[in-house]
Amino acid sequence: MNAKKTLPSYLEQTDAVKARFDRLKAREVILEVNNLGKSFPGTSGKGEKETVALKDVSFQTHRREFLCIVGPSGCGKSTLIRILAGLETSTSGKVLLEGKPVTGPGKDRGMVFQGYTLFPWLTVKRNVMFGLEVNGAGHDEAESQALQWLSLIGLEKFANAYPNQLSGGMKQRVAIARALANQPRILLMDEPFGALDAQTRARMQAHLLEIWRKIDITIIFITHDLDEAIYLADRVLVLKAHPGEVQELIEVPVAHPRSTDQFITDEFLATKARLEELIYAKSSHDDEEELYPMMSRLAEVDDNVE
Amino acid sequence: MRRKKYFAVHAELSPRAKTLLGIFSFVLPVLVWCIVSYVPAVWHPLVVVSDPGSVSYFQVDMRVDPGTFAQETATAAAENRALPVGKPANPVYLPAPDEVLKAFYTAFTTPPASRDSPWLHQSFWHSIQIIFWGFTISSVFGVPLGILCGTYTPISRVTEPFVEFFRYLPAPAFGALAVAVLGIYDGPKIAIIVIGTFFQQVLIIANTTRKLDGALVEAALTLGTKNVQLLRRVVIPGILPDLFRDQRILLGWAWTYLIVAELIGTTSGITWFITQQARYQHFPNVYAAIFMIGIIGLGTDLVLAYMGKRFFPWDSNGKV
Ligand SMILES: Nc1ncnc2c1ncn2[C@@H]1O[C@H](COP(=O)(O)OP(=O)(O)OP(=O)(O)O)[C@@H](O)[C@H]1O
Ligand SMILES: [Mg+2]
Questions:
Q1: Is residue A5 part of a domain?
Q2: In chain B, where the domains are located
Q3: Among the four residues A97, B17, B294, B296, which has the most C-beta atoms within 10 Å?
Q4: Is residue A51 domain-resident?
């Protein structure tokens, strides 16, 4: 942040990037969210008023788009993606997947959760076979497909291991393979790398981009790590809190293919500056402020750390 | 430092330390029992007569009050008669460890008093069958019902309040009723075990089922799993290790109902043996039989625990 050199506007796009966005927008719309609203009833009896988690959220994603959703804590990111997955019902508005309204969970939308949700009683291979089997595939067919997915994520060696023998990163890779094995139209990911250490997380990001390049999948990815969002996304949907509303849908001007070297490019920094402005500038005046009291000094007067 | 290590909350002990402490948990009560039995100074409130001498109502092996004994001895001495001989002893209901140990062997080898009475091992076998059938019948209904209650809220609401009420009714209270309905032989005994187990079983298994990580269910839903499949492919396999642990604990409870159950109608099984032996004051045999129940119970549990480890290799909290 020192010696603020003037960054270009995050809205400026090179011709290549613009052309790419034109191609992206020319592809058919996969997911359409219209005026989505969700409020949770307050705890009755205590007279608490209801929480409005989402209000009037609308956006569209195109086939093979990588959309990241960012926003301050509690702005309704998880609620939104859970509604998309069909795990939660909206109070108002509609979600359309390829034009058909979403009414409940289904195999056309895969999901990867922040926590580890591999079935602990199944081996890695059987976990990946799970979706295929419940959707009526025979054992042999499911097995051969599962092995292909495992080789895609590079974990064939662990096919017969149980989840509790895997590291966190491996577990999430298997979870991705398990979701993809169903060949969903769209992959929903709620802070999937949130529990991983920085190094593993970086490798997982590159890995996810690699997978995304190879197969016909649209990804909606929630994160609170802005670098992660810019590095991964075609577009970033920024939500604001209380109530959760769309603040801006940003087209990331960073060129493809992505690499970690781009973290210091002007476009990257400009986008990040914009995101920070949207997310943090707002919340510093927020009600959260009062939750942190001024502390009186407890250390010796001349015992300074700075 | 060492003490701190051992007494940290939930401290991890080496397998050796665990085994040693485990053995010690048995050694300690046995040691107390030995001291009470073999050190006369500790308790020994009576005198066991080994030679009645001239006291007409004394008999060999009779246990008398030390005051009476001293008085009779004094009287005999004053009248210059033969003195009775005796030594301090515990009451007959507290036999020494060696007597009980001997009884472990003799109880099995001694033929029953009357020819049509069962041998000890037959009594045991009878008891084991009662437990087996009681527990099996209870489980056949209780386990599925518990799982359904834990999975589907309406089933839970329509079942659990009543079950909750019923489990407070002491099973033995149904003894007379069970006899009226099922006769005096094994039927009412099995019924008592069933009543004693079933209601707890439903509640415990319902709770275990409810504790299944909801995220696993949601993950399965997003993979396209539908309702009945969810039960078979996620709920049941997900709770299986815990269900198995619950069943072990419940089986232990079923054993605790055994004696009461066997007193109902015609007394049978190990209870019959124990009451017979107690009537003839063969207390070492009584203790041996009681300990046998403990050994069988603990033995089954250890076997089941071992089986659990083999069945569920993925289970990370495979303790208890
Ligand atoms: N089941 C629920 N009942 C009541 N309120 C809820 C429920 N789930 C979420 N909320 C509220 O809705 C709002 C949005 O929650 P949500 O979990 O979607 O936020 P988030 O953006 O995912 O936050 P984070 O960044 O911490 O994951 C919060 O104010 C939360 O308290
Ligand atoms: Mg969240």
A1: no
A2: 13-44, 46-89, 120-311
A3: A97
A4: yes
Give the model confidence (pLDDT) of B33-74 as tens digits. 999 999 988 899 999 999 998 888 999 989 999 999 999 999
- Each residue of B111-145: pLDDT tens digit? 887 777 888 889 999 999 999 999 999 999 999 99
Q: Please check whether residue A113 lies inside any domain of the structure.
A: no
| Atom number in ligand 1 closest to CA A244 | 14
Which residue's CA is the closest to the ligand 1 atom numbered 11?
A: A53
Closest residue by CA, ligand 1 atom 1: A40
Residues A44 and A82 in one domain: yes
User: Mapped to the 3 state alphabet, what secondary structure does chain B carry?
Assistant: CHHHHHCCCCCCCCHHHHHHHHHHHHHHHHHHHHHHHHCCCCCCCEEEEEECCCCCCCCCCCEECHHHHHHHHHHHHHCCCCCCEEEEECCCCCCCHHHHHHHHHHHHHCCCCCCCCCCHHHHHHHHHHHHHHHHHHHHHHHHHHHHHHHHCHHHHHHHHHHHHHHCCCCHHHHHHHHHHHHCCCHHHHHHHHHHHHHHHHHHHHHHHHHCCCHHHHHHHHHCCCCHHHHHHHHHHHHHHHHHHHHHHHHHHHHHHCHHHHHHCCCCCHHHHHHHHHHHCCCHHHHHHHHHHHHHHHHHHHHHHHHHHHHHCCCCCCCCC
CATH T-level fold of B120-311: MetI-like fold (1.10.3720)
Any CB–CB contact under 8 A between A107 and chain B?
yes
Q: Ligand 1 pocket, A13 CB below 6 A?
A: no
The whole domain housing A231 covers 15-108+186-301
Could you tell me if the ipTM is greater than 0.90?
no
Number of independent structural domains in chain A: 2
A242 lines ligand 1 (CB under 6 A): no
